[in-house]
Amino acid sequence: MFTNKFQALLIAAATLLLAGCAAPVLRGTGDLGVVIERATGSVQIVDTSQLVSLSSVKGLGDLSHASLVYSRDGRYAYVFGRDGGLTKVDLLRGVIALRVMQAGNSIGGAISQDGKLIAAQNYTPGGVKVFSAETLELVADVPSGYGDAGLRAKVVGLADAPGNRFVWSLFEAGEIWVGDFSNPAKPAIQKFKNIGNQPYDGLITPDGRYYLAGLFGEDGMALVDLWHPEQGARRILNGYGKGEEKLPVFKMPHLRGWAVAGRYAYVPAIGRHEVLVLDMQTWLEAGRIKVAGQPVFVIARPDGRQVWVNFAFPDNANVDVIDVEQRAVVKQLAPGKAVLHMEFTPRGESVWISARDDNRVVVYDTASFAQRAVLPAESPSGIFFTHRAARTGF
Amino acid sequence: MFTNKFQALLIAAATLLLAGCAAPVLRGTGDLGVVIERATGSVQIVDTSQLVSLSSVKGLGDLSHASLVYSRDGRYAYVFGRDGGLTKVDLLRGVIALRVMQAGNSIGGAISQDGKLIAAQNYTPGGVKVFSAETLELVADVPSGYGDAGLRAKVVGLADAPGNRFVWSLFEAGEIWVGDFSNPAKPAIQKFKNIGNQPYDGLITPDGRYYLAGLFGEDGMALVDLWHPEQGARRILNGYGKGEEKLPVFKMPHLRGWAVAGRYAYVPAIGRHEVLVLDMQTWLEAGRIKVAGQPVFVIARPDGRQVWVNFAFPDNANVDVIDVEQRAVVKQLAPGKAVLHMEFTPRGESVWISARDDNRVVVYDTASFAQRAVLPAESPSGIFFTHRAARTGF
């Protein structure tokens, strides 16, 4: 009897060990990524070396317009759902580690320079909430109040900056706020007012110095030099569509993926079939490139020699590849119906493209444009690789 | 008897499982790093989130002047020893995964854009050898023959470039070679001859476009635009020390860590107590910054706002911090005796500095300059963090 019990215990122990040990494979996280499946509230965890899907994680809520950031170690993805859900996904175990509902309507987030703070930008209730990256406990709440009527603005264009700062824009208020969360219990907020009409998204340059907000209510952009906040916000690209008839806008472009290559930034023109070339030394327009439709994402290959562009309806089955020296489209690709996002591998040899309505992700070689792989996915949208953890502004 | 055997088997199985399972902790690799301990032929594996050493791996041979590159997934470090040893270290298990002796005298290496090829640059026998990153099997051998006398040059300045290329310089020959290893069995080698006297090291710009070789035999540098190899090699910074008396050189500066921040590169002047500012748009000298000694490493903080400099003997207990806007040293630090290397965390909040003769690694906050941690190490030299896997030219 004792022997049997002992045997049973040993078998149980061995089974437990096998279960606890065999499931998560010991592996590096530098070549992992996540594909958002917006229709099913799930994400796929993918391997960019083997070009395969490793696992699927369900139960993340409404993932339309979802984005994510990575923990400092590359193991966890913090997924910001449109419904205000914030989910910490363990890439190695393929499970949800933590999940909180933090707002009613949210539009993305960022992670602090030191990796300790997760900030969510919210439409409803308007503001920025900051959480412990480890526990998802709320550590700071900054409502986006403006004016004298007790109103709160939608927060857009949230970005991380050096010095454990976050920067964001207030849509209805026309303001840019810079929050220093070095002491999360007492964030220091600096407000730039009257920066322009309806900032709809923003980005920070890869060096973390310049924050730019795109303006929906007028032609132009707002610029803050974070090395010199005392200079205030500047207006750039004023009237870049002046004199031309406005086109209907089918989908707002995304600024966070904006391409910075050498001294130039490549900017989606709102409503026009053009990519604007912005000289980052003068902050003047340096040229325009004709493309197949209204650009949504304009993203540089990591070496800056190409810029890839996807489009709003009805041109959203196309992807244009711009050669930056020629300032012209040199290749057109058709990855599938409703291309929503593109993500380059860290050193740029491949790009992964989601085609929502064909339920697939297509991987291209960026030198030969050959298809390297096709992965099935349920209405895939955003694709995010773990090297983002090591970058500012991603 | 059967029961006892069965029990014994179960115990053995459980023990094996415990040993195989408990030892390596499931964790991300994005915040790992390696510190070279040159005197003992060992490396320490460190955690840049917790600021601790996780393990020590011995048996790597002669690690004077050792460097390393990381596998695409961040799990393995490929350590290039001075004695020609090439060691693949498993950071998660803290053990040597593979090791080969590939040359008699070696000076570093690089990893291809796709992560599949490891290239070693060798003094003896002179040339570049290329290995499978998975197995360390030799897949290509390119001797550095030059001239008509059957001589082989020392290979220096090896760097990776987009398109699975490697670029390197031949010291005695005054040549730069570009090797395309897209088909490793048949590498395509392009040679640039008469590039200048005694190239002693090289670097590639972060975008992978420009390869620069420093010249020891004359004042100046050689430049190849890899987007336009048909233009050949150019000479830049000609005679930057002209008319001044040459100083004795106590230690050759390292070019691979050269700082590129915005449009400027910060270059160690050979033998002079100066850092040169190089305008990367005109390739002309744009200024000089006085520093405490002969610079060895000149490295930009990831946001490009500071450049950190260490020095040759007798000033090698100092580190100078340059503010790039002021073009002046704004802080001097004394981390310990014989500072050999500095490595910034990926997003730049901290820097790790090795002080060989004080047997320690000191971690600083780069905003406040406060010491965050001191880690004991045996004669530490190079420090390398895993985010290098995701970058070109590291």
C-alpha termini separation of chain A: 61 Å
Biggest β-sheet strands, sense, barrel of chain A = 4 strands, antiparallel
Tally of separate helices of chain A: 1
Strand order, largest beta sheet of chain A: 3-2-1-34
* Helix-residue proportion of chain A: under 10%
Instruction: Provide the gyration radius of chain A in Å.
Output: 22 Å
Q: What oligomeric state best describes the polypeptide chains here? A: homodimer
Q: In total, how many beta strands of chain A?
A: 34
What is the approximate shape of chain A? globular
Structural account:
In chain A, 5% of the residues lie in helices and 48% in strands. Chain A is mainly β and 394 residues long. A four-stranded antiparallel beta sheet of chain A has the order 3-2-1-34, with no helix packed on it. A four-stranded antiparallel beta sheet of chain A has the order 4-5-6-7, with no helix packed on it. In chain A, strands 8-9-10-11 form a four-stranded antiparallel beta sheet, with no helix packed on it. In chain A, a hairpin with a 5-residue loop joins strand 23 (264-268) and strand 24. Mean pLDDT of chain A is 92; it is low at 15-21. Chains A and B meet through helix 1 of A and helix 1 of B.
